[in-house]
Design a protein that fits this description.
Length: 238
Amino acid sequence: MTPKDRPITTLFLLQSLDGKITTGDNDELDTDTDFRRLKGVKEGLQQYYEIEKTTDFYSLNSGRVMEKIGVNTKKTEPRKVPVNFIVIDNKPHLTEKGVEYMTKLGKFLYLVTINKDHPAFKLKGKLPIEIIYYEREIDLADLLRKMKQQYKATRITIQTGGTLNALWIRQGLIDNISLVIAPCIIGGTNTQSLVGGESIHTLEDLHKIKALKLVENKTLKDSYIHLRYKVMNKTEVE
């Protein structure tokens, strides 16, 4: 599938210098909250959120990420943003309250799931929500195709975890990568990295590696860096 058949996609994330997108190996630890507590890191953190405001009007996230940032327990009404949210959530990680919060936060919510008992089904027809249901496994390429052909999304910013990021990239579904590098090193074998998933095992799998072309290297304030790459999805192995 070519970008003509689907939206142009950008993987956009905040990470440490060693590629970690969270601060530890459990859901109590998270860059959104923990970086605010670290002297030498917190000073420049707001720059990431300012860049985030300039991303696409379709934002794809995972239910786990939304749960970690607290959408299920928010007590105040959100300030509405001009963004359509696409959330992949199977477990589910979102509660009814979390789904309702997401519909109030953005213009529209597309909930993608294989869970026929997801709380979102109870809210369909009552809130601005569309449920994209798959019976066994979410077909990421098909999802992007649907988002363009049925829902008219031409560009999508993706902010998911390491496992999903690996699937997007290995399937050649990411066109651009935009990374904000925080001035810290986290470490930890089990701490989630930008791209997780299954490792490459043989020389025959080298084609799965995606070469990148640097588009911009921008030094921000307080030792932060913003890197933008174009993904070369057709890897040639000599």
